[in-house]
Structures are given as structure tokens and as C-alpha cells.
Amino acid sequence: MGTSRRTVLAAAAATGLAAASAGTAHATAGTAHPTGGRKPVKELFGKLADGTRVHRWSLENGGTRLKVLSYGGIVQSLEIPDRRGRYANVSLGFDNIEDYVASSPYFGALIGRYGNRIDKGKFTLDGKAYQVDVNDGENSLHGGAKGFDKRVWDVEAFTSGSDVGLVLHYTSVDGEMGYPGTLRTKVTYTLTRHGDWRIDYEATTDKATVVNLTSHVYWNLAGEGSGSVYDHELQLAASRYTPVDKGLIPTGELAPVAGTPFDFRRTKSVGEDIREAHQQLLYGQGFDHNWVLDKGITAKPEPIAKLRDPSSGRTLKIATSEPGVQFYSGNFLDGTLVGTGGHIYRQGDALCLETQHFPDSPNQPKFPSTTLRPGQTYRSTTVHSFGR
Ligand code: BGC
């Protein structure tokens, strides 16, 4: 990426994102936060077919309420107040474990070992060819048919200073879904006293492998089940994106967003250009692309996205250490799922902003590398800050 820090800050300032510095961006307008941090509460959520118990943890801090499942590390509910203090669950999901197992399009889940697609599930590492699980046409998507979203994680709650949170562990054995190496994964969800939700990912391996972890929350800041997010206003600090072929595999090009529907450097609504007859929008049936963040890879999370729902006033700001973000406009929601609040989800009823390395990086030598070797630690951080 090679971008200097000065250029990063200049780019962020130009897009108006500079004020959204990680972890401090919470808008405190309006009433004081109703509650402080409390010790997370654990309850039984349901059982898998083999009898495995799935628990749900409830956390609250700085006005944000989070519910997390041991299955998939799923954010089952995330509630934040609107400008008048009224809470809504802004994350799509289900109210029962059976629907998560049978038909979830990754609602709220942790994604691994590899977020997004790998071309035909094939790659070569250190001269050795690997075939990973193919589950999306001829390609591999989000780690294969039984990725991290469908595994039961070990969960421990913590309180630390003014923070509350959960530490989630999952060990993926050598060869699982075709990936080499035993991968030990630790994900920490922290709710800060400002109500920010921070995710810290860590992983180590005992053989060279590839890793790209992310979180697949479907956001609707007006509340899940309330209708389309096309009125939400979005800003992304990215001057380029990675165009795809019809199987949604990157062509390898880093194309400028200037003059295309992909230009979110200045705030515009999600729906403004979504019906433009642009080949890339036909391929994705809307936005389903990786934006190349101007800041590049950073040691600390830096601001990259801002989302606002004008009707409720709720805002979400995202900061990340990652070089890319997949903006997916909920194109494949097709009216066949009934969500947490009892409403049907239809196309465009939510959007995802998945911080990540670029799709198909194992086959794209010019993309930042996703290789992890023994002795190295994979680290990635994303912070979600809410306001109103
Ligand atoms: C992908 C979409 C996919 C969705 C899951 C997104 O990250 O880019 O193509 O349909 O996840 O349902």
C-alpha cells in the first residue's frame, strides 16, 4: 500500500472522517448513558441436533446492549438508542438456534478461516497446492460450508476497568475445510464505557496457512425488520475498489471509484446509485465489493466508514487496522427469512461492512498478503462507535 501516515490523515480529513478516531468517536449528545458496565449474564439459548448446548451472553456498557452466542460468536442482538433515547436492535438475526443452523446468511457471525471468496477454493502456498471447501458455485465463501460461523466457541466473560467483554476461543484443526495448519483463534469482544464495540482478532498456526477473519453483522440503524437501508447515508475513505468477475472473484485490478457508483468518499445514500446500469452492480445485484481503504494496513484502527440513518439519527462509525472493507448491500436477502422481531427480511433490508484483507488474496500476488506462518501472530482490530 505504501501510503504515508500524513497522506492517510489528509485523505481522512478530505472525506470528513478525521474526527472519528478509534475508540473516542462516540457522540454523547442527548441524555446521559442510562447504565454503566455490568458483569455479562449467561443463559441457555438452545441446543444443536447433537445435544450441544448453545449459550447466549448479554453485555451492557455505555448505553450499548450486546447479545452474543457461543455458536459462531454470533451477535444475536445489538441495541442502541435513537436521538430520543429509544432503543432498537440494529442487527439482523433470529430468535432461535434452529434458524441460525438451518438458514442463516452469516447473520452477525464471526467469519473464518477466510472472509469472502477464494477462486475455485484453490491456492498454492510454498509450492504446495491446496483445495479448500467449495460452497458458493465453484468458489469457496467465508471459510467453506462449516466455517467459524458454524462452530461452537469457548466463551469467557470479563470485566476490566470500565470495560466489559467476552473472550472467544476456537481451535481449527489441521486440514479443517481443507486449510493447512492447526489454527488457534482468539477473538475479544469489548464494550467500552463509551458504548463502543471493539473486536480484537488473534490467531497462530503450526504450518504456513492463509487467514482473513471478519465479522458479518447486517446493520439496519432504523431497527432490524423496519424495511430498506437505502436511505442510510454512507461514507467510505476509499478511492479505489476491487472489481470482480461474474462469480464475484476480484479481477486483480484496483480501480478508481471516481465517476462511478462506487464513490462514497463524500456522503451519499446507499440507494442513490444502486440502480445505475453499471456492470459491477449487475454482477453483485447491488454493492458487494471490497473497497481499498486509502489508509492501507495500520498498526492501530483508523476511521474508515460512517453510516447514518436520518430517520432515527443513529450513527455508526467504523475504525480498523485492516486494508479493506466489503460493503454488501443485503442483495441476496429475498423475503424467505423471518427475523428476530417477527418480520420478513427482503433485499436491501440491511448492509454489511466487513473489515478484511481483499478477497482471493491467496491467488493475487499484488494484494496485501494473507499468509500466516508458525511463530507469527495474526492480529486485526475493528472498532464500532455509535452515536445519535
Ligand atoms: C458476500 C456476499 C454474500 C454474503 C453472505 C458477503 O460478505 O460478499 O456475496 O452473499 O456475504 O450471504
Automatic annotation (TrEMBL):
Residue span of region Disordered: 358-388
KW Signal (keyword) present: yes
Polar residues biased stretches: 361-388
Reaction catalysed by this enzyme: alpha-D-glucose = beta-D-glucose
Keywords, in A-Z order: Carbohydrate metabolism, Isomerase, Signal
Entry GO MF terms: aldose 1-epimerase activity; carbohydrate binding
InterPro entries cross-referenced by the UniProt entry: Aldose_1-epimerase (IPR015443), Aldose_1/G6P_1-epimerase (IPR008183), Gal_mutarotase_sf_dom (IPR011013), Galactose_mutarotase-like (IPR047215), GH-type_carb-bd (IPR014718), TAT_signal (IPR006311)
Signal peptide coordinates: 1-27
One Pfam family it belongs to: Aldose_epim
GO cellular component annotations of the record: cytoplasm
Coiled-coil ranges from the UniProt annotation: none
CDD domains the UniProt entry points to: galactose_mutarotase_like (cd09019)
EC number: 5.1.3.3
Superkingdom field: Bacteria
Record bears the keyword Nucleotidyltransferase: no
Residues involved in beta-D-galactose binding: N116, R117, H216, V217, Y218, D288
Pathway assignment: Carbohydrate metabolism; hexose metabolism
Active site: H216 (proton donor), E354 (proton acceptor)
Biological process according to GO: galactose catabolic process via UDP-galactose, Leloir pathway; glucose metabolic process
UniProt similarity note: Belongs to the aldose epimerase family.
Name of the protein in its database record: Aldose 1-epimerase
Organism name: Streptomyces scabichelini
Lineage, highest ranks first: Bacteria, Bacillati, Actinomycetota, Actinomycetes, Kitasatosporales
